């Protein structure tokens, strides 16, 4: 009841505030979609950035060799028209001959080979280097429309990587004349995507216009303006006054209250981000610590009321999960064992493990404070003496790298990739400090899924891995996230199942 009254008050306040603005929504009139982002936009080159905001912008301004269909997860042609495996270590990619850069020049095989060789080179210091360095030896031009990729090792997921990350640049972009310039495309971006940069004021505003020579399907909206507006309240006021047409990462209460007025539409869609509790099963902080005992880890899982957390603390389309991956991801087998909320069962398992009075536990977290507090509360209720350390992400990362964290509440978005590989490699392959399982056999199993191109075999391997993680309770999976948007009532903004916002697919109603 109190929540309902709060939302009613918010709706009334929002409507009252809206009537104080005289400016009408102007988007359709000048065919300009105005979007707000709280995070500062400082670099337009996605080869040198990582955040979700930069992925959204890259979808507007750039193109990759292949695309992944968010509905089917099938790989489709983009700049490339197709590919052929010469052998397990050699891949030939055929290119379109009508791809134009935003400066009017035609893309060539030399541009593609240069881009991949540069990104794979240690001197590039690119944020995308990790995607290709594990498999790419070199790329070479083999014809007027073909590039050959020589691999370091067998890696069947090359096409998936090509569809997810590397943005093609003109030959010599980053080291023209022998001088390295990693910021060459940070402001004056020359891409191949559906929109070209008109102007960019870092941290303030980006102006884009539809690129008439784009090789793909042209977007319906002619112009996109992205404004940096750090304060959500200011974004709200701008939306109601017609200053912006789109905002994302909207707090659920605000999305529901303002969405209940005529001034905005609330859209809630899936997000591949999941929340989870990582437990020091490997004994990195204490070789004989309680969390090295599988009964204790199972008790932790039973102690957490994940359904209520998902419904009341995350909201929207969020759901409780029981696997160490998002249910929508390829290979995320939902047949894995689940631990339903059962505090009494948790207490019994703790007693069986030799901890009838619980034990002290330092729990780290860096986001979603209400959820972190709920986790701590649930664990406390079964007798675990929790000290919650709520810190900035950088501090958590440093402490985890130093192996000083026995348990932490983390999240992972998989970069919008609906494949268990995107979460399993990072957290269970033994190649990152995020892997606190200490399980070498599990790491070998996870990595083996990347050594076969047989999709059914990959699915079976991930099924085994996810099953093992669940059975050993190496994690306490919590919930999926929900993506909440507020948009102009005049804007049609489709939501994709992978949770990645694609502004290029928007249109006016």
From TrEMBL:
Signal peptide: 1-26
Chief localisation class: periplasm
Pfam families tied to this protein: SBP_bac_5
Record InterPro entries: Peptide/Ni-bd, SBP_5, SBP_5_CS, SBP_5_dom
Keywords: Signal
Keyword Signal attached: yes
Gene3D superfamilies per the UniProt record, alphabetical: Dipeptide-binding Protein, Domain 3 (3.10.105.10), Periplasmic binding protein-like II (3.40.190.10)
Solute-binding protein family domain ranges (all copies): 74-422
Family: Belongs to the bacterial solute-binding protein 5 family.
Stated name of the protein: ABC transporter substrate-binding protein
Organism: Psychromarinibacter halotolerans
């Amino acid at each position: 009841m109190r929540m309902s009254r709060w939302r009613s008050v918010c709706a009334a306040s929002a409507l009252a505030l809206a009537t104080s603005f005289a400016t009408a929504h102007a988007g359709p009139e000048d065919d300009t979609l105005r979007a707000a982002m709280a995070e500062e936009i400082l670099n337009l080159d996605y080869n040198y950035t990582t955040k979700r905001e930069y992925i959204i912008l890259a979808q507007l301004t750039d193109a990759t060799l292949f695309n992944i269909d968010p509905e089917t997860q099938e790989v489709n042609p983009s700049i490339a028209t197709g590919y052929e495996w010469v052998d397990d270590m050699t891949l030939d990619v055929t290119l379109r001959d009508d791809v134009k850069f935003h400066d009017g020049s035609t893309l060539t095989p030399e541009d593609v080979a240069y881009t991949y060789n540069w990104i794979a080179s240690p001197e590039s210091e690119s944020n995308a280097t990790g995607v290709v360095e594990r498999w790419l030896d070199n790329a070479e031009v083999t014809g007027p429309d073909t590039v050959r990729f020589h691999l370091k090792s067998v890696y069947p997921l090359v096409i998936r990587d090509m569809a997810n990350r590397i943005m093609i640049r003109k030959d010599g972009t980053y080291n023209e004349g022998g001088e390295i310039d990693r910021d060459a495309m940070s402001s004056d971006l020359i891409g191949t995507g559906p929109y070209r940069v008109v102007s960019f004021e870092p941290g303030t505003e980006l102006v884009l216009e539809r690129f008439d020579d784009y090789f793909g399907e042209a977007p319906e909206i002619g112009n996109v303006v992205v404004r940096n507006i750090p304060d959500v309240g200011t974004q709200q006021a701008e939306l109601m006054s017609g200053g912006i047409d789109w905002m994302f990462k909207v707090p659920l209460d605000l999305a529901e209250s303002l969405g209940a007025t005529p001034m905005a539409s609330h859209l809630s869609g899936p997000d591949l981000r999941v929340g989870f509790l990582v437990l020091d099963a490997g004994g990195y902080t204490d070789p004989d610590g309680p969390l090295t005992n599988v009964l204790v880890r199972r008790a932790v899982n039973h102690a957490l009321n994940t359904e209520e957390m998902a419904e009341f603390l995350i909201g929207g389309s969020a759901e409780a999960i029981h696997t160490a991956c998002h249910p929508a991801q390829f290979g995320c087998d939902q047949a894995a064992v689940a631990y339903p909320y059962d505090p009494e069962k948790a207490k019994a398992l703790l007693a069986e493990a030799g901890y009838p009075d619980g034990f002290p536990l330092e729990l780290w977290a860096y986001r979603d404070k209400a959820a972190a507090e709920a986790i701590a509360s649930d664990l406390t209720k079964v007798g675990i003496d929790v000290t919650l350390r709520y810190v900035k992400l950088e501090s958590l990362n440093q402490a985890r790298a130093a192996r000083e964290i026995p348990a932490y509440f983390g999240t992972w978005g998989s970069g919008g990739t609906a494949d268990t590989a995107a979460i399993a490699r990072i957290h269970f392959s033994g190649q990152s400090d995020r892997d606190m399982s200490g399980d070498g056999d599990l790491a070998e199993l996870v990595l083996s899924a990347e050594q076969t191109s047989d999709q059914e075999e990959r699915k079976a391997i991930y099924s085994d891995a996810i099953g093992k993680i669940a059975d050993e309770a190496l994690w306490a999976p919590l919930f999926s996230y929900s993506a909440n948007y507020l948009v102009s009532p005049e804007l049609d903004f489709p939501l994709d199942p992978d949770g990645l916002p694609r502004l290029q697919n928007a249109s006016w109603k």
